[in-house]
Specification:
Keywords: ATP-binding, Cytoplasm, Kinase, Nucleotide-binding, Transferase. By secondary structure, the chain is α/β, with parallel strands linked by helices. The strands form two sheets. Strands 2-6-1-7-8 form a five-stranded parallel beta sheet, sandwiched between helices. A hairpin with a 2-residue loop joins strand 4 and strand 5. The chain has one domain: Rossmann fold (3-Layer(aba) Sandwich). The protein is built from nine helices and eight strands. The longest helix is centred in the C-terminal third of the chain and has 17 residues. Bound molecules: cytidine-5'-diphosphate (CDP) (2 copies). One cytidine-5'-diphosphate binds next to helix 2, helix 4 and helix 8.
């Protein structure tokens, strides 16, 4: 079986992209790269340093300057990786509600996307990578040999986020999560630059009622069938 060198996974919030991506990368001994972290880090930087995300020119300038690093975890607090912004640990800051509320606006700025896409391509083109996001199969790495569009119903996805927050001991309101997630998905899929959508040659998987391991098995089966 020939394993595709670049695997792109796109899909809406909490569809399971990072969970499935990490498991798949581990099975294949590939690098896992979550592009959402970069947009979240720029959003956090803008909120901290500019106190708002409305000024496209200034936010773009920030995106072009900041150094975002993702490294193996140094703390056992549930994190999958350490996320550093100019050397500072922002792993949990980028998961805060104010980042959720502003990240779509930041991600819609053309200059921000150009800066992020350039870095993502550099990593992707080295190969042996599972890259996850919104526009990997359509814009960042359209040459990917395997493209997955991972989806699940909005209710299922909101339930997953709700459970995650509860397990971390944080306050969670299901209806609010559902509402915020629907808004973010709508914004992401209707923006002008690199909107969230399935590439024409993507394989669609709906993960309602399927565990992350189950989705990985399905992807490995697709690889077996397509690349035998
Ligand atoms: O984890 P979740 O699916 O909730 O979000 P994420 O993957 O961390 O992405 C956060 C936000 O970054 C998305 O809502 C998009 O606005 C943006 N994003 C993007 O525009 N393009 C990507 N390739 C990845 C994320
Ligand atoms: O990266 P993305 O935002 O697409 O989703 P995620 O963070 O990988 O997954 C969101 C939550 O759903 C995690 O807590 C996963 O364990 C869970 N999940 C699930 O219950 N069933 C799946 N098939 C995939 C993920």
């Amino acid at each position: 079986m020939i394993i595709p060198s670049i695997i792109a996974i796109d899909g809406p919030a909490a569809s399971g992209k990072s969970t499935v991506g990490v498991l798949l990368a581990n099975r294949l001994n590939y690098l896992f790269f979550d592009t959402g972290i970069m947009y979240r880090a720029v959003t956090w930087a803008a909120l901290q340093r500019l106190h708002a995300v409305d000024d496209e020119v200034r936010v773009t300038g920030l995106a072009e300057q900041v150094q975002i690093d993702v490294q193996p975890p140094t703390r056992a607090d549930g994190r999958q990786a350490d996320v550093l912004l100019d050397g500072l640990d922002i792993t949990w800051n980028i998961r805060r509600p104010e980042v959720d509320a502003n990240v779509s606006q930041v991600s819609a700025y053309r200059g921000v996307r150009t800066a992020m896409t350039k870095q993502q391509r550099r990593v992707g083109q080295r190969g042996q990578v599972v890259m996850v996001g919104r526009d990997i199969g359509t814009v960042v790495l359209p040459e990917a040999e395997l493209k997955i569009y991972l989806d699940a119903s909005a209710e299922e996805r909101a339930r997953r986020r709700f459970e995650e927050l509860r397990q971390r001991g944080e306050a969670a309101d299901y209806e609010k999560i559902l509402d915020a997630m629907k808004k973010r998905d709508k914004f992401d899929s209707t923006r002008e630059v690199a909107p969230l959508r399935a590439a024409e040659d993507a394989v669609r998987i709906c993960s309602d009622g399927i565990s992350a391991e189950g989705v990985v098995d399905r992807i490995l089966e697709i690889i077996r069938i397509q690349h035998e």
